[in-house]
């Protein structure tokens, strides 16, 4: 083939275009030649692809507007600057389909060793799903400037909505707050529908919640929250999705970057609400607003800061806080090393969900939980204690069974390797798999039946074990290894 160049002016124009692309990647809808570094500083209004060969820096609040799809290649790194975040707006999509050997990473633009919670905003998906708040409902962390306008996520009607794909994606050092108590989350799913795929994702070192679901019905599998400054898993406002194989690990209270936002006073493992507070805008029936908040969380391993953390022993520090009229299905879990209690049921409306069958807790273990481990570890804050230091319990439609585990059950007899001090773990020092003699290798529900089976459908299935790891290898072995990160700065 012979290629004829008609004039040197064409060559010059092409060269100039490539040079410009190397400096900025903000031209909407045009995929430049991949280069070493580029900025994302303007809204994306047409389909575009981010390439693994380029390191991108978010320098603004960037919104992917409908009907555009943002595709991010496996292995791509995006660095967020203070005052930046990535929003996938209602009607738009993200196609972030990474691989175990090439995860997609959204992280701080600060140098390794200098990164802190709140360095940048986070990843936000806004769908057309259903929430239980009426009227105009605005997303926390928006509305601070012309570049960060208010975003409404209420009044959706499609719980099967599709916001795209997140697979093998990490979000690190996010949670920047535009004002006091107006922090963004590492991952925010606002009214996101079940057509969206969330699979193998990790939040690391954020200033606010690691994962927050506001209504909608998006499902997820294989999610990791490592060291967050607020709650690991927060669900509210009519969320009815299902999540299986979850890990939360907290060893310390984090220190945010100065000026990035306010540190939470009560971080928890789960914090699950019905409809805001009794006086929250749009909660027309208070804690009983419908659709009820009824998620399903299965095969979770929730590890807290331990009894020596005096801050969490008096504020926060519960493995699960269920309040404000929430229901839900919480099954086959491990709650370990939380300073106060395994579970806090905060109000009569939430407790009443047990009697109606809308709140089910089955086959959950408590390990080294409470301010005095070695004595009776509390199952419920201010309520029933285990009959021994550790236990397995089930609560289902008013019937309860609290059983002491056989033998001595400790962190060391339960998990293969969990650090007991505040250190940055490595693959050698952190291993959430169960020891050969762990009681949690059995005592799961087995195959689901009844309402639990109906809720799980084909998305979440019953297991004979408890916790995030499957001893029989059915969940993909040590599925958290190879694509996750355990840095603290």
Tell how many strands the DSSP assignment holds.
28
Gyration radius over CA: 23 Å
Give the DSSP E fraction (strand runs of 2 or more residues). Answer: 25-35%
Share of residues in helices: under 10%
Brief digest:
Helices cover 8% and strands 29% of the residues. The protein is built from 5 helices and 28 strands. The strands form 3 sheets. The chain has a 17-stranded mixed β-sheet that branches. A 9-stranded parallel β-sheet has the order 4-7-10-12-14-16-18-20-23.
Helix and strand arrangement:
Elements: H1 8-23, E1 37-40, E2 48-50, E3 55-58, E4 61-64, E5 69-72, E6 77-80, E7 85-88, E8 93-97, E9 104-108, E10 123-126, E11 164-172, E12 187-190, E13 197-204, E14 211-214, E15 220-226, E16 233-236, E17 242-249, E18 270-273, E19 296-303, H2 310-314, E20 318-323, E21 328-331, E22 334-336, E23 341-345, H3 348-356, E24 359-367, E25 391-396, E26 399-404, H4 411-414, E27 415-417, E28 431-434, H5 450-456
Parallel strand pairs: 1-3, 2-5, 3-6, 4-7, 5-8, 6-9, 7-10, 8-11, 9-11, 10-12, 11-13, 12-14, 13-15, 14-16, 15-17, 16-18, 17-19, 18-20, 19-21, 19-22, 20-23, 21-24, 22-24
Antiparallel strand pairs: 24-25, 25-26, 27-28
Question: Could you characterize what this model shows?
Answer:
This protein is mostly beta strands and 489 residues long. It has helices spanning 8-23, 310-314, 348-356, 411-414, 450-456; strands spanning 37-40, 48-50, 55-58, 61-64, 69-72, 77-80, 85-88, 93-97, 104-108, 123-126, 164-172, 187-190, 197-204, 211-214, 220-226, 233-236, 242-249, 270-273, 296-303, 318-323, 328-331, 334-336, 341-345, 359-367, 391-396, 399-404, 415-417, 431-434. The chain has a 17-stranded mixed β-sheet that branches. A hairpin with a 2-residue loop joins strand 25 and strand 26. The model is unreliable at 1-24 (pLDDT under 50).
């Amino acid at each position: 083939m012979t290629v004829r160049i008609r004039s040197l002016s064409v060559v010059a124009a092409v060269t100039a275009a490539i040079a410009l692309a190397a400096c900025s990647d903000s031209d909407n809808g045009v995929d430049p030649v991949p280069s070493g570094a580029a900025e994302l500083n303007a809204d994306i209004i047409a389909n575009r692809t981010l390439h693994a060969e380029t390191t991108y820096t978010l320098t603004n609040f960037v919104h992917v507007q409908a009907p555009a799809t943002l595709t991010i290649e496996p292995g791509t790194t995006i660095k967020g600057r203070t005052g930046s975040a990535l929003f996938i707006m209602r009607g738009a999509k993200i196609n972030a389909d990474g691989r175990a050997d090439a995860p997609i990473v959204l992280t701080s633009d600060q140098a390794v060793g200098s990164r802190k919670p709140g360095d940048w905003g986070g990843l936000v998906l806004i769908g057309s799903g259903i929430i239980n708040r009426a009227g105009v409902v605005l997303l926390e962390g928006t509305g601070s400037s012309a570049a960060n306008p208010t975003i409404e996520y209420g009044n959706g009607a499609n719980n099967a909505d599709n916001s795209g794909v997140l697979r093998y994606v990490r979000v690190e050092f996010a949670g920047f707050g535009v004002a006091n108590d107006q922090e963004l989350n590492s991952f925010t799913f606002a009214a996101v529908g079940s057509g969206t795929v969330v699979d193998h994702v990790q939040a690391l070192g954020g200033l606010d919640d690691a994962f927050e679901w506001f209504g909608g019905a998006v499902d997820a599998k294989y999610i990791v929250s490592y060291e967050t400054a607020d709650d690991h898993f927060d669900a509210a406002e009519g969320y009815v999705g299902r999540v299986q194989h979850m890990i939360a690990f907290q060893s310390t209270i984090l220190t945010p970057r100065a000026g990035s936002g306010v540190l939470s006073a009560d971080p928890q493992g789960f914090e699950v609400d019905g409809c805001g507070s009794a006086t929250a805008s749009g909660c027309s029936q208070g804690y009983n607003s419908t659709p009820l908040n009824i998620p399903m969380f299965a095969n979770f391993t929730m590890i807290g800061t331990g009894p020596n953390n005096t801050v969490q022993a008096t504020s926060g520090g519960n493995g699960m806080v269920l309040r404000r009229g929430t229901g839900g299905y919480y099954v086959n879990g491990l709650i370990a090393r939380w300073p106060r209690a395994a579970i806090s049921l905060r109000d009569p409306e939430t407790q009443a969900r047990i009697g109606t069958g809308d709140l089910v807790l089955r086959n959950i273990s408590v390990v080294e939980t409470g301010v005095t481990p070695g004595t009776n570890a509390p199952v419920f804050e201010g309520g029933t204690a285990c009959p021994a230091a550790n236990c397995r319990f089930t609560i289902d439609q008013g019937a309860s069974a609290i059983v002491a585990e056989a033998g001595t059950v400790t962190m060391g007899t339960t998990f293969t390797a969990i650090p007991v001090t505040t250190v940055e773990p490595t693959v050698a020092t952190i291993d959430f798999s169960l020891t050969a003699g762990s009681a949690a290798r059995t005592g799961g529900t087995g195959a689901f039946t009844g309402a639990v089976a109906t809720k799980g459908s084909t998305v979440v299935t019953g297991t004979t074990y408890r916790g995030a790891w499957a001893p029989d290898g059915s969940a993909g072995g040590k599925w958290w290894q190879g694509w996750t990160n355990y840095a603290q700065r």
